[in-house]
Structure formats: C-alpha cells, structure tokens
C-alpha cells in the first residue's frame, strides 16, 4: 500500500508533533472505528483518541481519523503537526494539485 504524508517535515523538529493513527471498517456491517495518538518529536505520548463512526468506507474512515486527530491536536495547543496517511485518495483530497496558470 502506498503511503503519503500531509503537512510533512522530513522528521519533526523540536516544534513538531506527529499523529500516529489508524482506522478500520467492518466488511460485514460497514461500521468504522478510528483511533490514534499524538506524540511529540521525541516520541513522548501527548494525547489519544478513539471513536466508532457510522457506516463508512475506507476513504471516509481515513478522513474521519485525520479530522479527529487534527481536532485533538488543536485542542491540546499543538500548532505544528505531521500526519501520515496510508490512503492515497485521502492524500489527494487533502492536498489538491496547484493550478498551473
């Protein structure tokens, strides 16, 4: 599976935090579950989240996961954040190509 990063530094410096997150969708019910944690540049735990989401697909779960992680980071006062994605479609939705004039 192709991996992509959003709001990326090559490695977080002293000002950056990172969201480590994952989500899943039940094949039988279509219900999704998301969760993750925020760590500082030294890998120290800052906060975590988890949540059931309604009927979803892989892309929706990925986007909910990013939203919840960024919301939590914002509420914790984190203003510089690295988010790693494993869904290239979510990456392209969150990073649209720049128009070429």
Fold blueprint:
Blueprint: E1 4-6, E2 17-25, E3 31-40, E4 45-55, H1 58-75, E5 81-85, H2 88-94
Parallel strand pairs: 2-5
Antiparallel strand pairs: 1-5, 2-3, 3-4
Organism: Hibiscus sabdariffa
Protein name: RNase H type-1 domain-containing protein
Pfam families: RVT_3
Overview of this protein structure:
This protein has a five-stranded mixed sheet with strand order 1-5-2-3-4, with helices on one face. The longest helix is centred in the middle third of the chain and has 18 residues. It is α+β, with helices and mostly antiparallel strands. It is flat, with a radius of gyration of 14 Å. It has a single domain, classed as Ribonuclease H-like superfamily/Ribonuclease H (Nucleotidyltransferase, domain 5), CATH 3.30.420. This is RNase H type-1 domain-containing protein. Pfam families: RVT_3.
Number of distinct helices: 2
- Residue-averaged pLDDT: 83
Which CATH C-level class is it?
Answer: Alpha Beta
* Terminal Cα span: 33 Å
Largest β-sheet summary? 5 strands, mixed
Helix content: 10-25%
The strand count comes to 5
CATH architecture: 2-Layer Sandwich
What is the count of distinct domains? 1
Strand arrangement within the widest β-sheet reads 1-5-2-3-4
The CATH superfamily turns out to be Ribonuclease H-like superfamily/Ribonuclease H
What value does the Rg take, in angstroms? 14 Å
Low-confidence stretches: 1-10
H/E element sequence = EEEEHEH
Pfam families: RVT_3
InterPro entries: RNase_H-like, RNase_H-like_dom_plant, RNaseH-like_sf, RNaseH_domain, RNaseH_sf
Protein name: RNase H type-1 domain-containing protein
């Amino acid at each position: 599976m192709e991996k992509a990063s959003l709001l990326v530094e090559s490695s977080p410096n002293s000002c950056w935090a990172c969201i480590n997150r994952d989500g899943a969708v039940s094949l039988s019910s279509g219900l999704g579950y998301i969760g993750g944690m925020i760590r500082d540049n030294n890998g120290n735990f800052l906060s975590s989240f988890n949540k059931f989401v309604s009927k979803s697909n892989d892309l929706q779960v990925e986007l909910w996961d990013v939203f919840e992680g960024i919301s939590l980071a914002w509420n914790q006062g984190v203003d510089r954040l690295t988010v790693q994605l494993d869904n290239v479609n979510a990456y392209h939705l969150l990073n649209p190509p720049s128009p070429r004039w």
